[in-house]
């Protein structure tokens, strides 16, 4: 057999129309259809004419980030998830996105002019491009004004604050390195910002930093076992005084900071206490004990002088007057939303509340709160688009199954299924949703009543993929235990009887597709095999040439002749987590381990194929799926727990 090398990882054999591709040094031979034109190995396939535009981001990072929700004069709330800063007008239900970051955004700060925003990120995949840094940008035009601190900041930007008493010419940052260095920048200087002072902040974790609103050159920081009052002197040297606690009131953590109208500092801590530190001093002026059971995660000073504190564990919101006397007005957010992460003042008496379970609620202390943003709190691996309606479903390790309406950008329902979800599928008629779980269980739900209509167990390993046959008579379940289990489907997808299991893969099943006639299955595995099966007999078809002309209903397997070009040079096979083909057979999208969503023209048979690529997700993209009319693509994130919706333009 004469293989012509195309790239150092691909060879083409013209005689039998096959491509041999190497993934981690293992050869995979892929046969094209018999009418396939000969490939010109030197040719580079162009990218598709279509592009993607980020339309909506579902989610909010509240589980492990602080001070991350603000209201802008435009009526938009600003917050972040993954590598995107979201500007969301809740009343008008429209979002804009700042996408300048290359990895996880960890903090934001709003300039006193309420127009300019600074956001800080952690170190990314790309050594040079994604060093931890700060971006300063205009919230109306979304133009980047300054990029600061690359090569200077260690690990990540943990806290950011603009100076307030001098009109915002300075920006202070605390990094996440071992010394938690605090640095002060003249961010408007043309030479990428100019660091005028820096010093070690604390060996202990620092969770918040705020410039004083009334006193120039004063900064307050707090964190594990400390609150510190910093002064930037005339010669640009930072020095600090530590806050002095009575021994019995010294908390494990000082968790949040605020300022009252007199310029006193208010701190909340892990003992559930609020403390007022007299302006310009490092001593306690007033202590309010036991406001919350568990930590106080947020102190919000209101326009009228009042103060709202939020409990990270007890979920309570407590309103105080300007003298920090309780007013008697309280509210508690429902437990399934999590605890209070941050409170931000809205218009009038409205408040926005970010929660520890990645939700944003809005409402007021009198009438209570309803969700503006609902999210997942753990990795999302299950994603499936409804076959006939504009809807999609997501399943996460957080045990939530959520049905979404992409046109109104809202959650239709959210259900705790009491199992960690690994994969999802709609039946071909859309009458049920099947969910593969980490435990080896798989569950079938009615999307209208949300009732569980069937449940089965196959093995004890995660169910990596589930797919119904196009005629809806069978369902194939690909497990991490190397087997594919085939069931017959009866009674409107509520009764399942096992036909057998497909044995032959020597590693876990990663993806599978059905043929259009529901006769055959093809599957990929963790060791980069492509195998074919007769679905009804569960037997392997060992002569791939015999079914080279079979039409496949989907292209979720990334290792196929039609998707050779989605693999980058030097790919190690684990790079691509998900692959999907549009229903009109014109586009292929992939999600990879580097947080990228890529769009190719289908079929991607040319080993050198160009694509459009998009950032936004900060960790691995676990799944990508086109909605039924191909107008949109949805992508799911791993560690960033976010869903992103893209318009196909």
From TrEMBL:
WD repeats lie at residues 373-405, 502-543, 614-649. It holds the Pfam family HELP. The lineage of its organism: Eukaryota, Metazoa, Ecdysozoa, Arthropoda, Hexapoda. One of its GO terms (molecular function) is microtubule binding. The chain crosses the membrane at residues 69-88. Keywords: Cytoplasm, Cytoskeleton, Membrane, Microtubule, Repeat, Transmembrane, Transmembrane helix, WD repeat. It is found in: Cytoplasm, Cytoskeleton. Belongs to the WD repeat EMAP family. It comes from the Eukaryota. Its main location: cytoplasm. Residues 95-363 form the EML-like first beta-propeller domain. Residues 380-647 form the EML-like second beta-propeller domain. GO terms for biological process: microtubule cytoskeleton organization. Signal peptide: none annotated. The keyword DNA-binding does not apply. This is Echinoderm microtubule-associated protein-like 2. One of its GO terms (cellular component) is mitotic spindle.
